[in-house]
Design a protein that fits this description.
The chain is an all-alpha fold. The chain has four helices and no strands. The chain is elongated and about 55 Å long.
């Protein structure tokens, strides 16, 4: 998988945590990173969503053209735009409680 330099630096920094010699310092550093990951995850997902929406705002851009540009599926781009992530558990059920849309 090809990552940008910035992403590679993040992964390298995370990998470097495992190389901390002192087990106490290693455990503390890893715990600190793990504790902050949920909030960082939210920020990263929001930043990705903003970037995808920016791509869609270009003239002639569609979900399909953006998906092809990013190398992901159409439904992935659709999910990002709607703010969905994960295995589908956070997606509203069609025709379910609180959903006024008719089933497909």
């Amino acid at each position: 998988m090809d990552h940008s330099q910035e992403a590679r630096r993040v992964f390298d920094a995370i990998d470097a945590l495992e190389d901390i010699v002192d087990p106490v310092a290693r455990a503390l550093a890893l715990g600190q990173v793990l504790k902050g990951m949920p909030e960082q995850n939210k920020k990263l997902k929001a930043a990705r969503q903003a970037a995808v929406k920016e791509l869609l705002a270009r003239d002639g851009a569609s979900l399909r053209t953006v998906a092809a540009e990013l190398g992901v599926g159409f439904s992935t781009v659709q999910d990002i735009v709607k703010g969905y992530s994960g295995s589908g558990r956070s997606r509203p059920k069609v025709g379910g409680e609180g959903d006024s849309s008719p089933p497909p």
